[in-house]
Amino acid sequence: MTQQTDAADPRFSALPARPGKIIAVHLSYASRADQRGRRPADPSYFLKPSSSVAASGATVERPHGTELLAFEAEIALVVGRPARRVTVDGAWDHVAWVTAANDLGLYDLRANDKGSNVRSKGGDGFTPLGPGLIDARAVDPDELRVRAWVNGEPAQDDTTAGLIFALPQIVADLSQHFTLEEGDVILTGTPAGSTVIVPGDVVEIEVDAPTAPGAPTSGRLRTTVVEGQVPFDPALGSLPAVDDTQRAEAWGSAEAAAAVGGSRHGDGSDGDVSTRSSRSPEETARALSPELRAVLDVTPVAALSAQLRKRGLDNVTIDGVRPTHPEMKLIGVARTLRFVPNREDLFAAHGGGYNAQKRAFDAVEEGEVIVIEARGESGSGTLGDILALRARTRGAAGIVTDGGVRDMDAVAAIGLPVYSRGAHPAVLGRKHVPWDVDLTIACGGTTVQPGDVIVGDADGVIVLPRAMAEDVARAALAQEEEDAWIAEQVAAGHPVDGLFPMNAAWRAIYDARESTS
């Protein structure tokens, strides 16, 4: 039968009470061991705080600035009466209930604690349990099943027949070392199929006993991933960090980190992901006002260049790049991405999985322009059609790269303004290592900082420092109106001498026109 018990705290609504301790098994399924390439001779364990428990239907934060939050579908055992030095044959008598668990883990922090998993597995909401309890008396511990779905798609499916260490053995082994008390929870490990989840993903996990009378089930444990807003404080402790080892472990394998990671996050080859990062207040504040955007929309890049020169800024054009759509205006706020020259050992560490290139295209917000430092190296692509599609889907204003573009016809067909040095069929790794995002870069011979205003038209691309963008834009628009009037006079037959630029006499005529209009 299935039992549901409530506790005062809604986090523990699926349990008889708040657990005194939560013990988790590191590696227990043969399918997972085969995936990891190592099979333990004996079970090993770690502890999770009871504050990590969450109920079905709750959200879990992927902490701000992190990448590798992974789910793990598990069978959870709830201890019904104390167990100390019990035998394998008698161990199951001390288990009162069985339910579903999601042993969430943040691989960005896993190396920091060297196996204890305190921070990587102990976060608030990192142990969803429930929603229902299955009476342990009604099921055979060797015939339980655990399954998981991500966004409705099957992700994990295994039974306790696939365990390296049977459930009673785990209970008996733990009881050798300390007393298992009533209400304690044991997480019994996850089978193959655990992988990375991102904000917007919904994970469902169910434990059942399909061969038992009535086929009792825990029901589906549902958890939705959201993006955290508060960054870690570097003054307090070690910060999240990832490398290819952690990416491979989180995604399930090195191949999955490269292939699955790429297809879910967009790497110029295939796929997409339903995540959207939230803007910080600082990012929201730097967004262009509708009024400034309207002025820039009717102001040519050449006019902006002239006004910047008057203010002493000559090195503000991104040189050597041409547009896929000369007829389209590019206006937006810079979001930067840096590539460094390819070096095989560095590409091995930084080029695969969810690398800086993929993160940049997943993080770009509406109205932003991805500006890429490729050192003017056009001997490979720096993006392809899938990344361009990802940028358009997220509302990006356009892309500027001083490198090459793959799949140029397909990129152009997407309809997003893209400026580059031209087409090239080679993949990124021929010339570049994706290195970092959201930092000051050099693109086409000019410095670009995150938040700079980027404007492009058929003449090229210019960088407006954010602090002077409005003043420059309005002055350029005024100059355009003046130049249009001068053009009318030239068309009427007047010589350019004294008119362009205007001398005092012509200025007086122009000003008089302005005052009477």
Automatic annotation (TrEMBL):
A Pfam family per the record: RraA-like
Signal peptide: none
Cofactor(s) of this protein: Mg(2+)
Ranges of residues in domain Fumarylacetoacetase-like C-terminal: 21-226
Amino acids binding Mg(2+): D407
Gene Ontology molecular function terms on file: isomerase activity; metal ion binding
Keyword field: Isomerase, Magnesium, Metal-binding
InterPro entries reported in the protein's UniProt record: Fumarylacetoacetase-like_C, Fumarylacetoacetase_C_sf, RraA/RraA-like, RraA/RraA-like_sf
Ranges for region Disordered: 256-288
Chain residues that bind substrate: G384, D385, I386, L387, R406
PANTHER family hit by this protein: 4-HYDROXYPHENYLACETATE CATABOLISM PROTEIN (PTHR11820:SF114), ACYLPYRUVASE (PTHR11820)
Database matches in NCBIfam families: PRK08245.1 (NF006093), PRK12764.1 (NF009399)
Listed name of the protein: Homoprotocatechuate catabolism bifunctional isomerase/decarboxylase
Naturally occurring in which organism (per UniProt): Microbacterium lemovicicum
Name of the gene encoding the protein in the UniProt record: hpcE
